[in-house]
Each structure stands twice: as structure tokens, then as C-alpha cells.
Amino acid sequence: MLTLLTNWLKGPVLEVQEFVRLQAATIRGAFSRPFYFHDVVEQFDLIGIGSLTVVLLTGFFTEAVLALQTGMTLDQFGARPVVGRLVSASMIRELGPALTGLMLAGRIGSGIAAELGSMMVTDQINALRALGTDPVRKLVVPRVLAGLFMTPVLTIIADTVGILGGWIIAVYQLQVASSLYWTSVTDVLYIQDTWMGIIKPFVLGYVIVTIGCHVGLRTTGGTQGVGRSTTNAVVAASVGVIAVDFFVTRLLITLLY
Asked: What's this model's pTM, rounded to 2 decimal places?
């Protein structure tokens, strides 16, 4: 029984160990030569511009339905004009970073895991090592930098589109005056909310990309292994986004408020 328990625990401990080693190698590779600027720019385009459509649609329709639902609830208290407060506060503090992170986990996390996993099972990673190229510097660092810096940009775009979506519903569906909506939006926002909405995407973007890279580089078992890695990356990144979002939010509330 003790042997079975030990063998069962070895797998998770090994994964954590390899994940930490990857983080150390990534940080070392980001601050030392050689730098692969072309790969970094390419990943900025793939992760940032490539994810723009799904982020725009998610932000718009999420806040539109939130405004519609909260407007119906606020009617019971005669507080329909304050719908802008709920829309802006919820989007900037929480929904913007969290939804953007989840969308990127599904799109970017799976893509990175599939790409690197395919390279692993076809020995392309070993070929890079044979040519004297560090796979972490070449493949992981550009993706981590792109995820780290593009996630906040995408989150800001999602926040903006979401608030506009709430405005459309508030004005044309709930019959709230446009000036009243925007006044309600600006009155409830504080600088601490803005900092929370900007800091969290940096952490979430880093978590999503590093999980995808780790799962991809640990792929074995041919094409079936690539499929498993893709699924595992999406699940792990999504759970990581939700869990890290909670802890970062708790920390920022303590520090900022």
C-alpha cells in the first residue's frame, strides 16, 4: 500500500519539479543572449492579433447579457440607472481579466501544447539541441513574452468593448439615458480598480503560456500523446486561471484597498 501511494505521488511531484525547472530556464533565457527577436514578434502577432476576434466577441456579449440581466433585477428596486456601475466595475475588476484568460487558455494554451508536442514526438526538439540551439530560448521565451505582454492589451480591449456592449443594451433595451450611463460608469471606478484590472492579466498570461509550454514539452506517445497534451493543457490552464485569479485578487485587495 505504501509503495502504491509513493508511486502515485511521484508523478505530480515530478511534474511540479519539471515545471519549476522550466520557469528557471525561461527567466534565464529571457535575460541572456541570444535573443530571437523575430520569433518574439511572430508570437506577438499570433497570440495578440490572432486572439482579437474571440476576445472582442466574448467581452461584448458577456457585458451585454450582464447589463440585460442586472437591469431586470435593478428594476425591482427602482435602480435601473445604476446599471453602468455594475457593468463597469464587474468588467474591469474581474470579468475582463478572467474571461480573457479563459479564452486564451482555450485558444493559446491548446495551440502551444499541440505545436510543441508535435515537435517533441517528431524529434524536432532533439534536432534543435543537436544544432546547438536551446529549445527554451527559441520556443518558450518568445511565447512567454508574448503571453505576458499581450494578455493585458487584450484585456483592456475586452473591457472597452464590454462597457460599450453594456451601453448599447442600457440605452436601447433598458431605456437608460446615455449620459446617465456614462456618469454611472465613471463614478464607481477608482484607481485601485484600474490597477487590479491591469496587474491580473500579466499573471494570468504568464500562467497560461507556461502551462502550455510545459505540457507540450512533456509530450510522449506519438499523435495520441499530442491529443492528450492538448486536452491537458486546456484543462490545466483553465483551472490555473481560475485559481490564480482568486489568489491574485485576494492579494491585490489586501495591498490596494
From this structure: 0.89
